[in-house]
Amino acid sequence: MSVFEHFIRSGLIAIIVFITNFSAGTAYSQVARQNLQVGKTSIVVNKVTANNRDDARQLSTNDPVYSLERITAGLDSHGEILLNDNTHILVGPGADVSLDDFVISDKGITSATINVLKGAFRFVSGKSPEGTFKIKTPLSTIGIRGTMFDIYVKKRGATDVILYSGKVNVCTSANRCRVLSRNCDIVRITSPRNIGFRKFLRSRNKASENRDYNLVANQNRFQKSWRAPIKQCSDRASRMDLDERTNEQGEGNDRGGDPSHEEPSRSSAGNDPGDGDGPGDEPGGDPGGGRTGSGL
What does the alpha-carbon distance between residue 163 and residue 145 come to, in Å, rounded to a whole number? Predict the structure, then answer.
């Protein structure tokens, strides 16, 4: 064998060894991530399933959940999950949620991405620093700054985000963004170039809102730490109606009109004991909130 042939053969062997080791390392890393426990279920109602590349399992209370698993819930089901950093997530009816890209060190969860592919999902921040979690939907990416919010992903990826506390930055794939910073505000994304605010929660017809947002009604079905403070939204709607009536009465008096003949309030935000808006149905939360977010 010539020196040249020996050199070529040695090089080929080195390349093969490198590729083999790299593939083995990648496979090991994938398996390690797949076997990385990131939390556990607290309560499972009806059928909630965890799927990975190898198998699927039906979840029960106190079952572990792992990175790279895809959690799905039936239409009459939900799962309340406690992550390692005390973040609370609620996989709601009809939801399909993927626990992707979790990185855990001796300091806890250092970064994580959760993909909400469809259905209803609630996020309540835990002990990790701001910026640790990123939430993705088919049409948006949500940056989190210590907060509680709901996500609803519907047909063709259309997404509504409802803020209950803190602040979130919602951006489309076309980099069109809105900042939610006032409690009960809603932003809707219908395409990469279409994002905007809707009327805040409880400022519209309550029955239609409960139908559109199936985590909103009857907060008592969830454990306390997974409940959203819906009453603050009803209070905000009541204050808005009071301000409008006051302004209308003032205009009527200026015109010499009779303010006793005002139209009844259009708000449907009354405290129906069965809808979860009443006292004792929420974990608390600041009923105030900052200014309405604006585009970045």
Answer: 11
pTM of the predicted model as reported, rounded to 2 decimal places: 0.75
- The sign of the torsion formed by the CA atoms of 20, 21, 23, 28 equals positive
pLDDT tens for the chain, residues 1 to 296: 564 455 455 554 444 434 444 443 333 334 434 579 999 999 999 999 999 988 899 999 999 999 999 999 999 999 999 999 999 999 999 999 999 989 998 888 999 999 999 999 999 999 999 999 999 999 999 999 889 999 999 999 999 999 999 999 999 999 999 999 999 999 999 999 999 999 999 999 999 999 999 999 999 999 999 999 999 999 999 999 898 888 877 666 665 544 433 333 333 333 433 455 544 444 444 333 333 333 33
Residue among 210, 215, 158 at smallest CA distance from 187: 158
CA gyration radius, the chain: 25
56 - beta bridge partners? 51
d(CA 44, CA 51): 15
